[in-house]
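In response to reviewer comment 3 from the previous cycle, which asked for concrete evidence that the modeling workflow produces usable outputs, we include below a single protein chain processed end to end. The sequence was submitted unchanged, and the resulting structure tokens are shown without manual editing.
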Amino acid sequence: MILNLDKRFACVLTYLVKPILFCCFITSSICYAQDTISLNDVEISAKKIDLSQIGKKLEKTDTVVKEQFKYSSVADILNYNSSIFIKNYGPGSIATTALRGGNASQTAVLWNGFNLQNAMLGQSDLSLMPSILFESIGVEYGGSSSLWGSGAMGGSIHLNNALRFNQGLSCAINVGVASFGTLNSSASVLLSKRSFASSTKVYLNRSQNNFNYKDTLDKENQIKHLRNSEFNFKGLMQEFKFLINSKQIISVNAWLSDNQRHLPNYPNNISSKTYQRDNGIRITASWSYMVTKFKSLLRAGYFVDNINYTDSLINLFSKSSVKTTMFENENYFMAHKNYHLNVAINILSSSANTENYSAAKTLSRASLLIGNKFMFFKDRLISYVSARVEYFSAGTLPFTGNVSLEYKLTKHITAKINTAKVYRQPTLNELYWLPGGNPNLKPEEGYTYEGEINYTKQIKQFTFFVSGSAYNRKIDNWILWVPGAGGNPSPLNIQKVWSRGTETSWKFNYRKNKFRMGTGVITAYVLSTVESNSQQNDNTVNKQLIYTPRYTVNGNIALGYAGTDLIFYHQYAGYRFTTSDNLNWLNPYHTSSLRLTNKLMLKEVDLTVFAACNNLFNSDYTVLAGRPMPLRSYELGISIKVKQKNKITNN
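The workflow returned the following structure tokens.
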């Protein structure tokens, strides 16, 4: 556990309070008077996310789960509360997705509809995304390339903010301590008036991250100590929203981050001088306009991602920077109550600088989307059909489309079907990295089909939810890095991959007065095999992709009374092959977590105390080969929220 908490807490306050006071000053200057005019909460938003989720399996994080993972990253929430397998390299290290037999670059990670994937790497690191920043975290399963573009092949992760008007003033500070010298802190200020709203969030997460793990191969000294793995993550998210009138809203969002890691060597008895620093600047702006039968959204984004990697022991100093500019216009026409047409254009340009390119490189893309939502039988049957055509500066991209159906068979049973053509364009590194880049790469492309049927029933104080889904996806031109000239790896379109599987979700809840209890189980069965490979003497055909477990199970048992919630989480992950020929593997593992929150709600103050025990049964496990995971660890946290509602009078 952390020592000298007073000094660390004072340091955190110094870091947090200054920007909060500044934002309070700015927002107070803009909105200096209390609102006394009644105005309904107005929200004008685009509907692309609603359209993309028709016919799809969805998983959304509820408020209790978000409260219990307030001090964690998005990776931690998804790891225990979805069927996504998280490729976790260890505490504070990179965490990416393996969704439905795909890799991280085949899952879109979207912040308010903007794709966060790094244009050089083609993926996003979920460990660098604190869950405290987002009001909504959800997973959309199934292909949606026609709506979200490159990378939305297996599914999409949606990280959304929900800044609303007329919510008053509130301030919150959260401080948590944990094993391995970890301090996790954040603070927020919300000022929400009749026609103006501002949200400021700052965070700091740092750790010495020296932990014990078990090495079963060493019979004499199994307990080892990981060193040289400290990290320091900090950042700020600022949102502004202006209600111009009942038809128009302007929003401006900014997310700044600075993340530093000390990367350990393996085996860990070798001292490390390897460091990585990731800096991010993400700025977006949007203008929404709505009348009775027409909605339009103009929005733009500017993202900068810098990665500095150094290893002084081998004189390696690598710097890379990628800048992405995007513009989008979405329009929705409601000519008839049962037919909603949407037309959108998207323009995106990414440019990168690194010593490993011959010169600065740029990728540009422009696309046109046309779709239509149909509703029949008093909205019991909903369908969405879309098509997307796209220009890509480094080659051709496939024509993509989507057809989805959602039918309410009975009051309690809903069936969903989705079919789509999906694609992923090559990244800047795959095209231009020296040595090894391949400018002649084709985009990965294929077809995906999925269906789900779910049942929801409430009987007095009992609620039941059961769902089952199945999917089938074949991808051609799968890009794989293989040994090239001089032994340098080079990417080639050499594989065809077939992914198929099933997923189930079982949830039971009981609530009476202040008492509540529930349980849930999420299962996934994944077969993701190589159907063909153009390499000579290849022995990967019909073999499972590496680090893609066939079986995963997540379960939880929850008890609650009044403001107290106790949840036990358990996770199982099956065999993960570590070589493409499936001759080497990691054994299955079980890991558990026990998390407790106690919330005391007073008139204007909410006080929440949090405690957790991770790896409850001290399991010896690794998610990825050579990346040890810690033994049992602990977390403690406290959150204080002060709130003041607007004074509203009814007309």
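The two ends are 55 Å apart (CA to CA). We consider this sufficient to address the reviewer's concern, and the full set will be provided in the supplementary archive.
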